[in-house]
């Protein structure tokens, strides 16, 4: 499908689902090409409970929905909590192997991953790294610089001094007007620390990122959409593929939203992100689990 057709598709999709546009100021980026990617998050492979009676079927349904999109995305990224916590290291690796096998069904050129605390907090990312590689890294794609941060391998919910120094060095190597997209599992700002919805030293990362005017952050962890600004930086959380969680501070405890048999998969879904680097603009389209 040509790009113009895809844009038309997004315009049509806006009438049937949520579309959020994050536009940032900036000069034209002549070398940048438009493209799109898909964000899936919080699959919690291995979870069992009444909060999702189709726990082993939801991820395959979402993968089928991604594969049914009119045009394959440039890449797919899973933003953490690929698997559900288990203290049994052997079972943890079994779940990661099963998850990896499921993800291989995606019909895209590239699939990327970041860890969540369910994957990495108990062993500081050891098992995760055996299957998926480094827990923090960078890559470039069509004029956009992508930074993957790890704010979960430290059980204290920190990035740590070493990673912050690594981030600072990477940012200093980028032009000031670079198009930068950051992926992290936890929010980098204090969304609701009482529920572990924060990164203890996230403010230091945000301060480093503020030196660049064209930065957007995508994260998971809170199992619902949330859109927040820290200065010029937009932060967008994604829905889960296992169970939704309540709005921040809306009830005494962070218990999952009950499954509704009359509306199965309500509150679950994945996200398309149309990147327009020349304008530093990102169009977000939220998709349900069972539709392409």
UniProtKB/TrEMBL annotation:
<dbReference type="InterPro" id="IPR006311">
    <property type="entry name" value="TAT_signal"/>
</dbReference>
<dbReference type="InterPro" id="IPR029052">
    <property type="entry name" value="Metallo-depent_PP-like"/>
</dbReference>
<feature type="signal peptide">
    <location>
        <begin position="1"/>
        <end position="30"/>
    </location>
</feature>
<protein>
    <submittedName>
        <fullName>Metallophosphoesterase</fullName>
    </submittedName>
</protein>
<dbReference type="GO" id="GO:0016787">
    <property type="term" value="F:hydrolase activity"/>
</dbReference>
<dbReference type="InterPro" id="IPR004843">
    <property type="entry name" value="Calcineurin-like_PHP"/>
</dbReference>
<dbReference type="Pfam" id="PF00149">
    <property type="entry name" value="Metallophos"/>
</dbReference>
<keyword id="KW-0732">Signal</keyword>
<feature type="domain" description="Calcineurin-like phosphoesterase">
    <location>
        <begin position="37"/>
        <end position="224"/>
    </location>
</feature>
<dbReference type="InterPro" id="IPR051918">
    <property type="entry name" value="STPP_CPPED1"/>
</dbReference>
